[in-house]
Every structure is written in C-alpha cells, then in structure tokens.
C-alpha cells in the first residue's frame, strides 16, 4: 500500500513520463509525414485533383484511405490495379466502359480535369500506409496483374501488365476476371493476329455496334496484347 505522498509521486512521475513519450512520438510522426506521404510528388495537378475529388463528392460512393462509402470500388490502390488508361477511360465515359451496367455518373470532366484526377489517384497509391489496404488473396492470376498462367492450355503464357489492368475488368481467363465481355480462353484459335490488332485499335471499325469502347492503348500495348491473345489457343 502506497502512502499518500508516494501515490502522489507515482502519479506525477508516471504522468510526466507518458507526456514526454507522447511528445516524442508526435515529433517522430511529423518527421515521417513528408516521406510517407510522398510529399515531393504533391504537385499542382495532384492538388487540383484532390479539390475535384472533394468537390464532386467522390467519397459518397468510393473509399479512399479507409474513409468513404462502400457503394463503389475502393480507390486507394486503383492506380496499381487498373493503371492510367483504365482510370482515364472511366472518368471520360463510365457508361462506355461498362455498357448498361456501370452506375457511375458521367461528370463531363474536361481532359485537364481527368489528368488532374488521375494524377491525384496516382499520388494516393504511393502514400505509405503501413500495409493498408492489404492485398487481396486472389487465387486466379488473371484477376490481378497477371504473371505467367500456370495451368491448363494456357500454361507458360505470360500476360502484359495492361491485360490485368484493363482487359480483366470485363473479360475472364480461366474463370477469373469480369463478366461484361466474353471469356478470352481460346481467342487465338478463333481470331488471327491481324483481326485482334485491328479490334484493339478500334472495335467499331470491325463491328459498328460493339459494346467494347475504343481504349487508349499505345502501339506497344496493342502489339503486346495481340501477341498474348494470339497464344491463347
């Protein structure tokens, strides 16, 4: 049993030590902020994109940094999952990306606004959140940025990164991916490389009522995807 003076001393010393620890931890946290938030990349485009994100109440549907709504996809790591081309296409015309399905409002963003929002989402993906959000435990490689497919008729075929970022949002391979478009298993047997290349450049040139939009693919993207899809036999 402590005496009254001992209890008072214990309280004062304990409070003092905890206060010092709190101050030191606070200082350490503030020192870490510039590096963990990748502050050097927070340029004018990122700042304008953040204002657009707030102005249009994107958090009313999306979650970012663990805050927001859960009606629409989580956006903290959207750059890593989908890449620049997909993000810009969605911001330009959500309905074109998912005909008859996607409920995202078309905000009629200008090209400059789309670039700003894309820059903001890219910066968000570089912030060090100590492992948050955790990477999902996806069993099928086609549902992520695909590496080498390991099973079935597609064993040993390596997909380009753009396939995982854009194509699997709508198409499946080995049962993994989106369901908006047809499965791509065996597409190399059904279509030759010339057809695939033209389709990737402009689907409407081959099918006027195509549900697939004209995607912002570079020449290298088209070449890589054509090579990959041609092997899917």
- The largest sheet has its strands arranged as 1-2
Please state the average pLDDT score: 86
Report the β-strand fraction as a percent range. Answer: under 5%
Question: Between the first and last Cα atoms, what is the distance in angstroms?
Answer: 81 Å
What is the count of distinct domains? 3
Low-confidence stretches: 138-153
Summary?
The chain is mainly α and 233 residues long. It has nine helices and four strands, in the order ααββααααββααα. A hairpin with a 2-residue loop joins β1 (63-64) and β2.
Characteristic key phrases:
Cytochrome Bc1 Complex, Chain D, domain 2; 3 domains; 233 residues; two-stranded antiparallel sheet; two-stranded antiparallel ribbon; mainly alpha
Description:
The protein is mostly helical and 233 residues long. It folds into 3 domains: 11-36; 42-126, Cytochrome Bc1 Complex, Chain D, domain 2; 141-230, Cytochrome Bc1 Complex, Chain D, domain 2 (Orthogonal Bundle). It contains 9 helices and 4 strands, in the order H-H-E-E-H-H-H-H-E-E-H-H-H. It has helices spanning 4-36, 44-55, 78-92, 94-97, 111-126, 161-165, 187-190, 193-201, 219-230; strands at residues 63-64, 67-68, 172-173, 176-177. Strands 1-2 form a two-stranded antiparallel ribbon. A two-stranded antiparallel ribbon has the order 3-4. Helix 2 (44-55) crosses helix 5, helix 3 (78-92) packs antiparallel against helix 5 and helix 8 packs antiparallel against helix 9. Residues 138-153 have low confidence and may be disordered.
């Amino acid at each position: 049993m402590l005496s009254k003076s001992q209890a008072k001393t214990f309280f004062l010393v304990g409070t003092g030590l905890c206060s010092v620890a709190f101050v030191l931890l606070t200082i350490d946290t503030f020192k870490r902020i510039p590096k963990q938030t990748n502050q050097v990349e927070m340029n004018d485009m990122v700042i304008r994109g953040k204002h657009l994100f707030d102005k249009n109440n994107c958090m009313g549907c999306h979650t970012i940094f663990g805050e927001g709504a859960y009606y629409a996809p989580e956006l903290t790591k959207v750059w890593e999952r989908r890449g620049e081309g997909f993000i810009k296409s969605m911001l330009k015309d959500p309905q074109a990306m998912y005909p008859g399905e996607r409920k995202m409002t078309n905000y009629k963003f200008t090209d400059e606004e789309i670039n700003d929002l894309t820059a903001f989402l890219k910066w968000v993906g570089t912030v060090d959140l100590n492992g948050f959000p955790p990477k999902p435990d996806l069993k099928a490689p086609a549902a992520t940025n695909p590496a080498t497919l390991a099973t079935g008729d597609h064993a040993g075929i390596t997909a380009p990164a753009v396939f995982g970022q854009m194509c699997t949002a709508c198409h499946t391979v080995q049962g993994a991916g989106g369901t908006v478009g047809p499965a791509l298993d065996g597409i190399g047997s059904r279509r030759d490389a010339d057809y695939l290349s033209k389709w990737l450049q402009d689907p409407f040139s081959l099918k006027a009522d195509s549900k697939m939009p004209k995607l912002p693919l570079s020449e290298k993207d088209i070449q890589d995807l054509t090579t990959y899809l041609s092997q899917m036999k």
